[in-house]
Amino acid sequence: MSTAATLNRFAPTSARNRLIMGLDVPTAQQAEALVNATEGDIGVYKIGMELQFAGGLELARDLAASGHKIFLDVKLHDIDNTILRAVKNVAKMGVTFMTVHAYPKTMRAAVQALREECNRDLCLLGVTVLTSMDEADLTDAGYKGPIADVVSARAADARAAGMGGIVCAATEVGSLKSILGDELVTVTPGIRPSGHAAGDQKRVMTPGDAIRAGSDYLVVGRPLNQAADPRATAQQIVAEIEAAL
């Protein structure tokens, strides 16, 4: 699977397509309501762990079948054979993006699964370092060296494995371009429009600044799913992305 070809398939084609909405709510019914409230103004809908354990996998299949781009944020990491079989099953769901942790063996097994399934429509994303972590958190987890070095190493591993892209903080995208070039897409959580609290995110950036830094896709969760008017908020974010482009 060519990384250059992956980029051609998965690079965003418009400001709206760059916006990923995190459906970080406790029930599938609430998630469906958010999709209905924002349909047409969101490029991709992300289904994370909370929702996956409350009907989110079925919802992902249904939304994908109805033409929505879905990001299944499963963050897989396990023995090679388990990853291989799990990714093969995800590849049959019709989703556009899925995540695995950016460990070399995990990523290689995931890429092999797509090769065996002959699936060229699923973009595999390697999660580098969670945006909720800072330097102290990384040290507590037993890693040596600054976050930037760990992210750079994992990004290089993702490229070597043949992944479609990586997940990293927008603050790191600029420095990663020398490693990734234009071969892998960059997906950046921790996006907070001006005036919104960072919450549990620590490496954050506004939508406009993230686009100017080189981010391809922006993940926005609470500022959208907790907004009084999610559609209006989505439109404001897309307008900021468009201006930054």
From TrEMBL:
- Tell me which residues bind substrate: 24, 46, 73-82, 131, 192, 201, 221-222
Task: Quote the SUPFAM superfamilies the UniProt record gives.
Answer: Ribulose-phoshate binding barrel (SSF51366)
Q: What class of enzyme is it?
A: lyase
- One matching Pfam family: OMPdecase
Active-site residues per Swiss-Prot or TrEMBL entry:
73 (for ompdecase activity), 75 (proton donor), 75 (for ompdecase activity), 78 (for ompdecase activity)
| Catalytic activity entry | orotidine 5'-phosphate + H(+) = UMP + CO2
Q: What is its EC number?
A: 4.1.1.23
GO CC terms, sorted: cytosol
Gene3D superfamilies per record: Aldolase class I
Pathway, per UniProt? Pyrimidine metabolism; UMP biosynthesis via de novo pathway; UMP from orotate: step 2/2
Any one GO molecular function term: orotidine-5'-phosphate decarboxylase activity
The record's section on InterPro entries has:
Aldolase_TIM, OMPdecase, OMPdecase_AS, OMPdecase_bac, OMPdeCOase_dom, RibuloseP-bd_barrel
What GO biological process terms are annotated to this protein in UniProt? 'de novo' pyrimidine nucleobase biosynthetic process; 'de novo' UMP biosynthetic process
- Locate the Orotidine 5'-phosphate decarboxylase domain: which residues? 18-237
> To which protein family does this belong?
Belongs to the OMP decarboxylase family. Type 1 subfamily.
Oligomeric state and interaction partners are given as:
Homodimer.
Query: PANTHER family given for it?
Result: OROTIDINE 5'-PHOSPHATE DECARBOXYLASE
Chain's role = Catalyzes the decarboxylation of orotidine 5'-monophosphate (OMP) to uridine 5'-monophosphate (UMP).
Q: What is this protein called?
A: Orotidine 5'-phosphate decarboxylase
What is this protein's gene name?
A: pyrF
